[in-house]
Amino acid sequence: MPAILTVDDSRAVRTIIGKQVKELGFDLLEAEDGVQGLEQLAQAQVDLVLLDVTMPNMDGPTMLQKMREGGNQTPVIMLTSESKRSIVAGAMKQGISDYILKPFKPEELRQKVLSVLQGESGADAVVQSEGSAKPSATEPASGPTPAGGKFVDIVLVDDMENVHKKFRSLLPGHVSLNAFTSAQAALGACRERVYRVVVVDTEIPDVNSAVLAQQIRVLQPHAAMVGLVLRTANDVTKEIREQGFDDVLFKPFRSEVVDDFLLRYFDNQDFLQVEDNILKVAPFSGKADKVERFYGRIHGVFPEALEKVAAACYDEVVLDLGTPPLEGDRLPKLVLAVSEKSKELGMSLALVGPPDVSKILGGYTETKDLKVYGNVQEARAGMAA
Amino acid sequence: MSTDKLASELEGILVKRIQSDQLFLPSLPAVVVKVMEVLRDPDAGMKEVASLLERDPVMAARTLRIASSAAFAGGSKRITLQEALARLGTKALKGLLVEASTQKLFVSRNVQINDQLKVLWEHSVAVGLLARDVLALTGQGDSESAYLAGLLHDVGKPVVASVLLELERQLTEVYQKGWIDSGDWLRVVRSVHRKVGVALGEKWQLPAPIVACIKDSGEYDKSERHSLSNAVCFSNALAKKTGIYAGEVDAEDNDAIIMIGRSVIGISDDILRTLTKGLRERMVGLYD
Hints:
The complex is a heterodimer. Chain A is α/β, with parallel strands linked by helices. Chain A has three domains: 3-122, Response regulator (Rossmann fold); 151-266, Rossmann fold; 271-384, Transcription Regulator spoIIAA. Chain A has 14 helices and 15 strands. Chain A has a five-stranded parallel beta sheet with strand order 2-1-3-4-5, with helices on both faces. In chain A, α3 (60-69) packs parallel to α4 (85-94), α7 packs parallel to α8 and α11 packs parallel to α12 (330-344). Chain B has helices at residues 3-19, 30-39, 46-53, 57-67, 81-105, 111-138, 143-152, 156-175, 182-203, 208-215, 228-241, 251-266, 269-276, 279-283. By secondary structure, chain B is mainly alpha-helical. In chain B, 70% of the residues lie in helices and 0% in strands. In chain B, α3 (46-53) crosses α5 and α10 packs across α11. Chains A and B meet through α4, β5, α5, α8 and β9 of A and α6, α12, α13 and α14 of B.
């Protein structure tokens, strides 16, 4: 069993350290000053020395010097209330593995003792220099990496899994989401991935959400930080912003509120996706009063999408309408506009959609002659024929 | 006259000018002074601030750019300057104005020192980022102010550099010597810049904790572990360790500062790794 020698003129300090060392499962040796410390080292095998600086008879730096001069290379952690850098720099010349300032937290002592005994201590093992390709000695133990790729749209931190489920149900399928119930897990994920939007519940038990948001902001400097708060009669928006959040989202979630949220942060991505020469209209999920906006957004983005397809030298373009809202004449107007733009760019257009779409388009002179295929494969085959 | 003597003479002249209050210190740009005055009024609206800021197109553009980023809930919508200012808020706006004013100090028409100033500015930005992130990641202290404190900790250096340039010209007319060696130049700058920086900080009416960081960020304050000066002290050493610095570094002394700082502030291996990973990439785009 590893043995740790604590050298400190304060019995109280030796007692505190002794308790923590024993909790770690190590044997403990004690000394009141440097003289006793050297005697202990001469008599017993010690794996680590916790060394104070200011002591009678022989101080810490002197004991350290004598250890090294005598060929003793036992690792030493300086554990002291002394913070003058000249003293620590001098000790570093003799070789210390780490440093702890009194008063200290048990966790710091534990981490540094274990780190030294495992041979992983020191800033050199951790600091990544600019221009140096050397990786760090160990990877951070931040928990399991969530499944999926590196770039994820949204991370949600809320202690209730039901909130995760509800939020996911309101997002379109192509918007990716990672959800965590604990701050620790969320921070771990934020170290590994890049998120566009971070949503943090402002009432997580035992967590200061403002601090968590600050911590995540360091890891995700380009993400928008959104505070998730329970909807009440009071307007807490200003208060949430003052905590450091950029925006507020209320729960229980309402679909139109989530729609607005998506519009704000994901802009065009909701409505039209482009893959090769296929323009796929995203499903519409919202109330009837949002249909105008839905078609408006597609009108806004399809010209650029068609230009991209044309720039890739495709002769044909496929517009996969999915299951769009069929009320009014918005669908025929959209199809007509896409058809005209495609012609302008020198491409022929094929439409994909369910029978309802074909029926609607058939009712308008301008679009009745356009063929609507059942799926993309049929559309491609039809155009090739 | 040897360059050592020349360097000593320059240092002596600077110290005398500081002590007799005869050192010319740059002022904040006029538009910034006016905006700061308006912001002192708690009832001041951003409309008035926007109209003032529009007089400085560079400052206005910078404000718009930062406020339009995703971090300020901008998405891809275009916003007006007034909307941008409302999003930033008073505190962030003040910080941005001081930052922009400070950056102007780190530019010189003199080719010889402009490169040095560029490296000094990069170091200042790195220290600002690290100081902010140190406090943010440990969840303690005022991380927003830490950015400004870190950015300004060496603000005296460019001021000293421009004064040295002028003094050196005057002296070489007498002594017929060329520009002093860059090593000596840096030595003089390092020995005097803190006094000059404090004087500048007081002239710009910067908050006292920030002026304290300019005055001394060499030893840690054990009584207030998460103070701005501790964050800046640690970050300064860390920036040097990662190579974002011009001039000589006493490696052992620097490592001692980092080692002590990790315990004083409470910086775990995970936090340290996060702080330094991709630091230069995070600096890109923060200044033009």
